[in-house]
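note to self: dont lose this again. the chain is below, predicted strucutre after it. 616 aa total, dont forget to put it in the shared folder this time
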Amino acid sequence: MADIIQLLPDHVANQIAAGEVVQRPASVVKELLENAIDAGADTIKLIIKDAGKTLVQVIDNGKGMSNTDARLSFERHATSKIRSAEDLFQLHTKGFRGEALASIAAIAHVELKTKQETDDVGNCLIIEGSNVVSQDIVVTPTGTSVSVKNLFFNIPARRNFLKSDSVELRHVIDEFHRVALAHPNISFALYNNGSESFNLPISNYRQRIVNIFGSKTNEKLVPVEEDTEVLKISGFVGKPEFAKKTRGEQYFFVNDRFIKSAYLNHAIASAFDGLLKTGTHASYFLNLKVDPQTIDINIHPTKTEIKFDDEHTLYAILRSAVKHSLGQFNIAPVLDFDRDPNLDTPYSYKRSDTDTPKVEVDRSFNPFQDEVNSKARAIAYKKEPSPSWEGLYVGLESKGNESKPNFTEVRFESEEQTASIFEEDNQVEKSQTTYQLHNKYIVSTIKSGMLVIDQHRAHQRVLYEDFLQNLTIKEAASQQLLFPLQLHFSPQDIEIIKQLKVDLEHTGFAFSSVKEEFVDITGVPVGVPESEVSIILEQLISDVENEVPDSHFSASDLLAKSMAKSLAIKTGQTLQKDEQEHLVNKLFACKEPNVSPTNRATFITMSVDELDKKFI
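---
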């Protein structure tokens, strides 16, 4: 029988590796930024066009590469970071497997310009689909510039899986944030389609967070510091009152590398236990320093997951450190609930010396010296005694005896009773057609049996069609606010609101201004309480970031779904009889009452025959 196993060609192997390393333009951004950091750069620029589909360029002022290194950097498993297998557990750099540039070059057009400080001229290398097109001498500043153009040009199927530009741009910005937050000692800049989106100077960690997420973030941060033999923690957590319904502002960095860890995230949630509203998540920006020998970062191609040697100890230390910070800054309640915080010793006087109070006595003081004079003055000012109380009523009996009231007969004024127009029969009550079960379902009777409606999904369907109609005809009613409502958002969230501003106005919102870090709202849709506006916009931003539909759906459809999800009555809410009936009537007046906007069943029916079978 003929042999059927064969070695894959290099270009096919590189494309397979690219499927693990390069999933979208954001993956290219991550790899190139990490290479620039490993090169020792202190100024890094990221330039993107069309959300990275057309161009991703990273320019740094690092140490650069020689001609030979520039050519070898695009070979598989070529790296300057490790020499032996033991080095995998002593990593202090970002990249180490040597797959990034080779994988990127296999599926894009790559142009590399690099120069070392000791060289007069640099080197320019152009690669298209793993094929080296040219390698020439070029005049370029010290450092490296890598341009990745036309991503997935030779794999159309992979390119079709990319989302819209707004979604891909959001992923690019997320990766940019993760790298920039981990390295506040490096200056970063991001240019999107020719305009500057971020310019982050070298700063401390708190300033870097504020520069990325807006000046309003500064008042939300609570510092966390802990130094043990096993783990060193530094960073900030957000105050509970600023918790969001999304997990956007949650960052763990282990040895300056962003990671995702559901286990450590549970430690933070446990520290905030009892302080957060249901359905909200705390923000945190925490740097963890551990011994590189106690972690394994080579368990996932994207290196965002890490295996810890003793994660139970890290869990306990992290949870205790966060709880200590919340208590230290009076965020969390202490055991003594009757304690007056005004009596606490200020931190500025914690180590200062206290003065012992001194008692001074006036030994020449005589309290009996003026006793005689005091008695003389008391006699001089003595008044005549007033007559007894009986004298105040003398003569009243002789005046007007005829006006004395006669209480022999007392009458009370009663309310006038009017007969009812309709005769009422207290024994017969109007039959109830709907019932609420466990504050979650509405049960109603039909001819064939019984109808069970999910009140949350049913209300979503009703609101969804109402909002979609308002967006279509653009004639929604707006409820003007007495005082404008000012809401603060991060710069990237403001960009999303600007994109949806017209559609939001069609639903009933009215904006007086949309600035870099806040929006002023002067009107809201009828029936929307003012307290729900921030929740609606946060939910909408989250939906746009994570669930933007493809081209066959419209932004209006997404907006209607998001607002319906935010404003629909929740499970556990008690409904009066007329509210239940109104919801049932509105549901069956919809065009598609059978399913919610997310294509889930809104009701089920159970016939009498099915009920009879339950009793067999």
